[in-house]
Design brief:
Layout: E1 4-9, E2 12-17, H1 18-31, H2 34-65, H3 72-84
Antiparallel strand pairs: 1-2
Length: about 80
């Protein structure tokens, strides 16, 4: 199902689908100057990186809840084994 985004501008409701927003973003990128494109890229990259970190945190929290833990000694042994390879 297509998501809708509601944008409010001067009390006029404009409904844009995700597809419409993507098309408009492409126009901004295609016509943007170097500074805009680089800033947009950095913003998108930071967003994706934050999603990755959020996923890792959620997975770690699930490991903790499920009891999948390692002692300090076990972790130290793992590190030692990695450095031998």
């Amino acid at each position: 199902m297509e998501q809708k985004l509601y944008l409010y501008s001067n009390k006029i409701n404009i409904i844009m689908s995700t597809t419409d927003i993507k098309q408009e973003l492409h126009k901004y990128i295609d016509t943007g100057d170097d500074k805009f494109v680089k800033m947009f890229y950095e913003m998108a990259k930071a967003y994706v990186e934050q999603l990755r970190k959020d996923k890792m945190i959620a997975e770690g929290e699930e490991d903790i809840k499920s009891g999948r833990l390692h002692s300090q000694g076990e972790v130290q042994k793992m590190i030692e084994d990695w450095t031998k390879e």
